Amino acid sequence: MNDPAAETQHFRLRREADGWRGRIGRLWGRRLVRIVAALAVLALIGSVVLWALFARGLPSAEALLTYEPPLPSTVRGIDGMPVHSFARERRVELAFDEYPRLLVGAYLSAEDKTFFEHSGIDYPGLAGAVFDYVSKIGSGRRARGGSTITQQVAKNLLVGDEYSVSRKVREAILAHRIEGALTKPQILELYLNQIFLGRNAYGVQSAARAYFAKDVGELTLPEMAYLAILPKAPSNYSPERHADRAIERRNWVLGQMQANGFITPAQMRDAQAAPLGIVGRQAPERQDAGGYFMEEVRRQLIDRYGEAGKDGPHSVYSGGLWIRSSFDPAVQKATETALRDGLVRYDRGKGWRGPIRQLDLAQPWAPVLNEVGVGYDDWRAAVILNKSGGEATIGFADGSTGTLPRWAAAMPKRGVGGQAFAFMKPGDVIAVKREGGNWALRNIPAVSGGMVAENPHTGQVLAMQGGFDAKGASFNRATQALRQPGSSFKPFVYATALENGMTPASIIVDGPFCVYQSARLGRKCFRNFSGGNAGPQTMRWGVEQSRNLMTVRTASMTGMKKIVKTARDMGIGDYSPVLSISLGAGETTVLRLTNAYAMLANQGRMLKPTLIDYVQDRRGKVIWRADTRPCEGCNMKDWDGKAMPRPRARSAQAIDAMSAYQTVHILEGVVQRGTATVLRDLGRPLFGKTGTSTGPTNVWFVGGSADLVAGVYMGYDQPRPLGSYAQGGTVAAPIFKQFAAAAMKDMPVVPFRAPAGIRMVRIDRKSGRRVFGAWPSDEPKAAVIWEAFKPESEPRRTIRREELTRRSDAPAARRAEAARDNDFLQRQGGIY
């Protein structure tokens, strides 16, 4: 190009073009920067939104530092020893240092060999898991996990085990938080304590017991390796179904342990050659020690703290509570045995009442047998598998079988006749007991009852039995069954009378007594249990002989409003003020009535029956206490050598202390001369009262010693007559006697202590007169007794030894004495 003008124009155009391109480039550059910045901002906002969306509801770092896995609650007895636990998950929590190094190495080799290197997420493993998940979408197959131990801990902290990408993201977020809040040993401790390993075992310690019946410190190397294969899918390595697969996987873990330097090649080879050595699947340990007692404890705890973890940190099944109860194993055993023996004794001879239940043998029947309670330790629940000739094959809950010969099932069928064996058929569940090489049929009584034992000084319930067997039957007849106590209520009628001016020597007529009810109902006349009447008698004699006519007469004179107030104050019940209540027509429970008798033995002081002394949280802090009385100095660090500090005495009175003691003293006569003489040969001071309700539908005995009070009743759940021969003294009192012989065997023999002010006076228990002089050796000493009087109520009438001697010999003197008694009654205003 030679033209200078053209050349100049060319360069000018090029410069302009370059300028436009520069301006356009700069414009697009600025726009690109803005676009990139906008996208970055959007990405950041999206990340924050997604993070907030997925992180919502996850535990904070602070919450992770205080996280506590669910733990069972443990009940201790009165001696401090564990006797029961409440748990939905079998779990034992250990500190990280308590786990053997090789056991930790086994889990690291099986689950996360880079655990100590990564920050919570194994990114190569996570990428592989994501790729696997995408490749299997729509196939119905589950992708491999790729989770680190930290992520598994995070998963267990989340609610549920949802199979989704969102759950995986939340798991990764929480894993990141965990790594920032906890040390590696703390994370491993959480993992080893909470991981599910099959057989209802949560945590490695529980699994060690479930699979090998050992603690973690006792496990061998191959046993550790086996437990390490279980976290992913315990059922895949079940020793019963997949033993070969379990051995193969266990040996792989051993190989990984050797490759990671935890064991030597020689240790690996020896361990790989070992068998699995797993114990058979154990049925859960039967925790029926004090079954009714523990069920009542459970109900009270649930009412106070809730049942599941969502109800708070102190929940029964996950809070790790330590419950100190008043449960006394020896007293409980005596209570259970005495009541069961009494029920069986009453039921004996009435015939076999049929199978306990019936099962479909085509369905699994062993688990059902585990739910059947048969009472005694040497009785077992069994199902009839087949009958052939003169014997039946029976099966047990553990899968074993036995033989029931015809002769061992020869008791008659109740209401039908014929031998029980003839009525049995496959699927019937029965109770049997071992006899020689065979099994013999036993009968679960149709009649039932309840029994309670209590410490009268504190109100602590030491034992409770609410029926024949608590297993599979939660209805507690000791606390829930409302029954008429019959004559066992009478002491509270007389205690009220003693508070209102009467004395144990007061003369009360045992004679006809009628009351007008209404124009429609007319008159109601009462009668004694045996019919007949005995004329004027002392209060003591009337209580000892349980005379109905004397009781209603006393109630009428004292006033039923006062008597029902006493019943309410003593916690027996809230009744209408009608005369029939004085004979025990109002309903109550064994626990309530036993506690009322305990208050009598406690000199009328108020008692609240308690099964739980105090509750501690998992760290031992007391969070609830039954006895809230202040105790100055009880927590002193250094004892000063002075009298030990004690809580203040319980001073609230339900009834006057002297009236309570007089009642107890009278009730000692029931044992010595009255309706409970069957207890006399126990050889210790006892008080109590029998009871028989109309029918009779219920029979009772309540009483005890100065240090132990118990009550028992027997009756059908759907009340019906027990038979005319059934009475409190013949059926219930013998149950108490068997109980007392065992429970009181090693207790000191102590008398009932009289409160200040009581005067002891010798009286004639028939006439109520004060007796002077020694009683002749040839006369019945039961006629003269020491009686307890309040200072202002000692009897003024006296009788000397010579007069008593003449009266015992001469009928005329007796008639004259009766006439004087009648004159006395008239002068007293006619107590009749």
From TrEMBL:
Transmembrane segments: 32-54
Keyword Glycosyltransferase part of the UniProt annotation: yes
Reaction equations catalysed: Preferential cleavage: (Ac)2-L-Lys-D-Ala-|-D-Ala. Also transpeptidation of peptidyl-alanyl moieties that are N-acyl substituents of D-alanine; [GlcNAc-(1->4)-Mur2Ac(oyl-L-Ala-gamma-D-Glu-L-Lys-D-Ala-D-Ala)](n)-di-trans,octa-cis-undecaprenyl diphosphate + beta-D-GlcNAc-(1->4)-Mur2Ac(oyl-L-Ala-gamma-D-Glu-L-Lys-D-Ala-D-Ala)-di-trans,octa-cis-undecaprenyl diphosphate = [GlcNAc-(1->4)-Mur2Ac(oyl-L-Ala-gamma-D-Glu-L-Lys-D-Ala-D-Ala)](n+1)-di-trans,octa-cis-undecaprenyl diphosphate + di-trans,octa-cis-undecaprenyl diphosphate + H(+)
Keywords: Antibiotic resistance, Carboxypeptidase, Cell inner membrane, Cell membrane, Cell shape, Cell wall biogenesis/degradation, Glycosyltransferase, Hydrolase, Membrane, Multifunctional enzyme, Peptidoglycan synthesis, Protease, Signal-anchor, Transferase, Transmembrane, Transmembrane helix
Domain Penicillin-binding protein transpeptidase as annotated: residue spans: 449-739
Highest taxon of the lineage: Bacteria
Glycosyl transferase family domain segment(s): 80-258
Pathway: Cell wall biogenesis; peptidoglycan biosynthesis; Glycan biosynthesis
Domain Penicillin-binding protein OB-like: 352-447
InterPro entries, per database record: Beta-lactam/transpept-like, Glyco_trans_51, Glycosyltr_51/Transpeptidase, Lysozyme-like_dom_sf, PBP_transglycosylase, PCB_OB, PCN-bd_Tpept
Family according to the record: In the N-terminal section; belongs to the glycosyltransferase 51 family.
Record-given protein name: Penicillin-binding protein 1A
